[in-house]
Amino acid sequence: MLELPDSWVWDFWLADDGESYHLFFLYASRALGDPDARHHRASVGHAVSTDLTSWTRVADALVRGDSPAFDDLATWTGSVVRHPDGTWFMFYTGATMTLGGNVQTIGYATSADLTTWTKSPDNPVLRADPRWYELLEDGQWAEEAFRDPWVFADPDGDGWHMLVTARARTGPADSRGALGHAWSPDLRRWELRAPLTAPEDGFGHLEVAQVEDVDGTWVVVFSCLATSADTRTNGTSAGVWVARGAGPLGPFDIANAQPLTGSDLYSGRLVRRRDSARWLLLAFHNDAADGTFVGSISDPMAVSWAGTSLVVTP
């Protein structure tokens, strides 16, 4: 488990260099007092492990940029992939505060060793396009949601895909959550495309999405609390959800997504150790029994299929 005595820790993503697992995580000082204030003070920390359980903190990976910059409010959730030439790419969310509110866009940084990162001068490389995605000016949500890039190589070798937490331009406000989609031939140039999911599936947003082939079945794992879902889904105390898909780009059955964890866990990530084919889930500890925010990252939990349901197992 990763727990920092002086900071809250929440969303995270992982990379494996063949010898160590690298954990990149959002953190902010507990001196802020109010856990909700952490979002506007987030930096990207870095820790390493050989077993996904015991972590050693190392130098931070990223901090917010100087104004005016696309990330001059905070650096938020992302993912890491390795280019065939050996360069590591970290895609992440840049948050900036405009007169109208928080606007989120996507940028990236590169590294030769997963330790020293250089932000691209071309940032941001993606932003919400009103052809498909809701903007802040639409007045339906408290922010312009366009964040949490999850990047993966096309299984058939056709470049790279990115999933994005976004919102559609139509449908009830509490059910516009959409899985945004972009494509790239080389990780540097990106083409935004229509979302992979339709609105009115019951979720206000599909946060920190990840797509994987789990034992022969494609799934998308995402997070959403009851406070950000419509009446069809807000009767549950779920935090992490899973929906089945026909392939890595869907279609995904979001309307019939099933809870994978309670609201005590959030921002779930599926991962496998190098020496095992078994899938594991890591998540951050969200709310305690008394409702207070915890802010630490769990130990790995095994997941497996129970019939048609993916479940956390002992």
Secondary structure: elements and pairs:
Layout: E1 7-16, E2 21-29, E3 43-49, E4 56-62, E5 74-82, E6 88-97, E7 102-111, E8 118-119, E9 143-144, E10 146-153, E11 160-167, E12 177-184, E13 191-193, E14 207-214, E15 217-223, E16 240-245, E17 258-259, E18 265-272, E19 279-287, E20 293-297, E21 301-306, E22 309-313
Keywords: Glycosidase, Hydrolase
Protein name: beta-fructofuranosidase
Family: Belongs to the glycosyl hydrolase 32 family.
Rg value: 18 Å
Number of alpha- plus pi-helical segments: 0
This entry's quaternary arrangement is: single chain
Q: Per CATH, which architecture?
A: 5 Propeller
- Report how far the terminal alpha carbons are from each other: 17 Å
Uncertain segments are none
- Taken in chain order, the helices and strands follow as EEEEEEEEEEEEEEEEEEEEEE
Major sheet characteristics = 5 strands, mixed
Total discrete domains: 1
Strand percentage: over 45%
Structural class: mainly beta
Can you tell me the CATH class? Mainly Beta
Mean pLDDT: 95
Family: Belongs to the glycosyl hydrolase 32 family.
Pfam families: Glyco_hydro_32N
Domain Glycosyl hydrolase family 32 N-terminal: 19-241
Keywords: Glycosidase, Hydrolase
